[in-house]
């Protein structure tokens, strides 16, 4: 297998983007990524597009080809990846493998989602159908907040996690989003506001849930040879990659206090990278709901099982703490355009590792120059863990 | 041309309505069982694995030789949620509680939890899985109070 680096990254403004089509939105992330890499579209041999809602909540059925044409990529190899909310990471993995295998030298992974063209309750319907339609939605109307709320009640019962602990995650992530100009929700909130916000699926309240967001992100990947050829000054190397799937039926999981797919994907990624969790300087983890971030701390090995609430209470996941997490505002406040999310994490971490272009107030201190992205599709239906090193 | 809710110019895409027919020939005893008040699972004759939701094929040993068995319905609740914001097609329902219960047989079931006050519902509590037909003819199963 060949070494693979991220040589360019771009991200659109996240939020309600009814001013652009899916291709125009993708372009907003593609152009800065290509410029960042110092290449042209003609240098790109393979295109991988992550998006989940095609033909359902936005109009194009086969968006990858629309997007690649719009970005001037016709002629390159093309694939569209769906891994629910981890579609972006699946696209990244495909681009990675295309280079690592020796097939191509330069590839692009584009993640994009348009979720705000339809009304909220229809979106709740679509996303709710994305667990196991026949057995969990058809008769029982489970929603995505509902799926994660069940993990929350299980975690609370087993470890004494409280609604305040969940609120602390939201408060932290809103704080960092307020410092991030491309974030969807830029208001700071208090624990009291979070606790008194309307119940969506108890114990999860409005401020425990990520917003419904439009957005796009792009990274350009290159082989070691291409890094030299294009004289890339700050390549960010992909040193670990792991992926695993969980059961579609939530009821078939071992327990509901964590995601086994995260544990498996993380073990693979740490092993490939040859590192331990305590060597990670900064992480973007999947916090579609506040309980998801707490479970991620534990499943990724940032703390022992059941100690996630302690980590957030002590402020250890803020900048200056043991392991800064979701310093871009996370899915919770930066937003969660599901096909773009995984690549938006890699965009943020690439900028962080280069110590550049991120607002100075959000720059984390770097010791080992190692960053980790954790992207879950569904409630652990898919999981990708990616480890980067400058 | 029209204006989107954000007052930006948009075109309305052509409307399409779909409601796929879901095949149930291979799980028919389950759906028929509900009408008789039974919740049925399958059990692999070769390796003994019990499947709920019922499966016609065993993912464990790849055998398709399955037995049907009726679940006892004795459950312990392992997780639950009170869903307030409902999907579009559930808008006519009152907010509902969904739970995961572990049955005596070792399998778990996702279903609505009814017949309890919200304050009574706790992880670890006992419930009974019951099958019935809704007034509009839909076979259904829920967790409710043990007899
Ligand atoms: Zn078997």
What would your notes on this structure say?
The complex is a heterodimer of chains A (about 400) and B (about 150). By secondary structure, chain A is of the alpha/beta class. Chain A has 14 helices and 11 strands. Chain A is globular, with a radius of gyration of 19 Å. The two termini of chain A are about 20 Å apart. In chain A, about 65% of the residues are buried. Chain B has about 150 residues and is mainly beta. Chain B has one helix at about 30-35, and strands at about 1-5, 10, 40-45, 50, 65-70, 75-85, 95-105, 110-115, 125-135, 140-145. Chain B has a 5-stranded mixed barrel. Chain B is globular and about 60 Å long. Chain B starts with a strand and ends with a strand. The mean pLDDT of chain B is about 95. The interface between A and B is large, with 45 and 40 residues. Strand 5 of chain A pairs antiparallel with strand 6 (about 75-85) of chain B. Bound molecules: zinc ion (ZN). The site of zinc ion has 8 residues of chain B, from loops. Zinc ion binds near residues 46, 47, 58 and 61 of chain B.
Feature tags:
A: 390 residues; alpha/beta; two-stranded antiparallel sheet; B: 147 residues; mainly beta; 5-stranded mixed barrel; 3-stranded antiparallel β-sheet; 37% strand; binds zinc ion
What's the quick description here?
Chain A has 14 helices and 11 strands. Chain A is of the alpha/beta class.
Q: What's the arrangement of secondary structure elements?
A:
The complex is a heterodimer of chains A (390) and B (147).
Chain A: E1 4-11, H1 22-37, E2 46-50, H2 63-70, E3 77-81, H3 87-100, E4 106-113, H4 120-128, H5 133-137, H6 144-159, H7 163-178, H8 191-195, E5 199-202, E6 204-205, E7 215-223, H9 224-229, E8 236-245, H10 260-273, E9 282-284, H11 290-299, H12 308-313, H13 330-334, H14 341-354, E10 370-377, E11 382-389
Parallel strand pairs in A: 2-3, 2-4, 9-10
Antiparallel strand pairs in A: 1-7, 1-8, 4-7, 5-6, 8-11, 10-11
Helix pairs in contact in A: 1-2, 3-14, 7-11
Chain B: E1 2-3, E2 9-10, H1 28-35, E3 40-44, E4 50-51, E5 66-70, E6 74-83, E7 96-103, E8 108-113, E9 126-133, E10 139-144
The structure holds zinc ion (ZN).
């Amino acid at each position: 297998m060949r070494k693979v680096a991220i040589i360019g990254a771009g991200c659109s403004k996240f939020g309600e983007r009814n001013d652009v089509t899916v291709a125009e939105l993708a372009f907003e992330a593609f152009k800065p990524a290509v410029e960042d890499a110092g290449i042209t579209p003609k240098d790109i041999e393979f295109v991988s597009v992550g998006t989940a809602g095609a033909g359902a909540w936005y109009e194009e059925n086969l968006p990858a080809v629309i997007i690649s044409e719009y970005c001037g990529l016709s002629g390159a190899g093309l694939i569209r990846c769906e891994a629910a909310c981890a579609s972006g990471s699946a696209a990244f993995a495909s681009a990675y493998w295309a280079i690592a295998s020796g097939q191509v030298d330069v590839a692009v992974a584009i993640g994009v989602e348009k979720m705000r063209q339809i009304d909220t309750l229809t979106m709740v319907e679509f996303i709710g159908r994305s667990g196991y339609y026949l057995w969990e939605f058809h008769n029982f109307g489970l929603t995505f907040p509902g799926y994660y709320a069940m993990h929350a009640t299980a975690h609370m019962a087993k470890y004494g996690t409280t609604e305040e602990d969940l609120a602390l995650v939201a408060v932290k992530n809103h704080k960092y989003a307020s410092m991030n100009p491309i974030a969807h929700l830029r208001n700071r909130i208090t624990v009291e506001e979070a606790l008194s916000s309307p119940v969506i699926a108890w114990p999860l309240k409005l401020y425990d849930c990520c917003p419904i967001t439009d957005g796009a992100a792009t990274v350009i990947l290159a082989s070691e040879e291409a890094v030299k050829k294009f004289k890339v000054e700050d390549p960010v190397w992909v040193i670990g990659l792991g992926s695993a799937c969980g059961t579609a039926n939530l009821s078939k999981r071992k327990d509901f206090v964590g995601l086994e797919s995260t544990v498996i994907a993380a073990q693979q990624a740490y092993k490939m990278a040859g590192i331990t969790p305590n060597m990670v300087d900064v992480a973007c983890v999947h916090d579609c709901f506040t309980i998801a971030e707490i479970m991620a701390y534990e499943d990724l090995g940032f703390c022992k099982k059941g100690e996630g609430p302690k980590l957030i209470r002590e402020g250890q996941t803020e900048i200056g703490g043991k392991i800064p997490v979701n310093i871009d505002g996370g899915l919770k406040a930066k937003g969660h355009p599901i096909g773009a999310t995984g690549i938006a994490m890699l965009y943020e971490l690439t900028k962080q590792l280069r110590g550049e272009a991120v607002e100075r107030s959000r720059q984390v201190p770097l010791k080992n120059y190692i960053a980790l992205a954790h992207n879950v599709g569904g409630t652990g239906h898919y999981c990708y863990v990616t480890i980067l090193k400058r | 041309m029209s204006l989107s809710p954000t007052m930006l110019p948009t075109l309305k895409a052509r409307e399409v309505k779909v409601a796929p027919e879901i095949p149930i020939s291979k799980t028919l005893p389950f759906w028929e069982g509900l009408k008789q008040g039974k919740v049925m699972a399958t059990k692999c004759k070769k390796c003994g694995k019990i499947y709920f939701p019922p499966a016609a094929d065993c993912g464990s040993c790849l055998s398709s030789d399955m037995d049907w068995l009726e679940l006892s319905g004795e459950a312990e609740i392992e997780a639950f949620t009170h869903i307030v914001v409902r999907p579009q097609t559930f808008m006519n329902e009152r907010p509902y509680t969904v739970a995961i219960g572990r049955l005596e047989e070792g399998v778990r079931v996702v279903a609505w939890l009814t017949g309890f006050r919200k304050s009574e519902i706790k992880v670890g509590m006992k419930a009974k899985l019951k099958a019935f037909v809704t007034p509009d003819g839909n076979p259904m199963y829920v967790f409710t109070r043990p007899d």
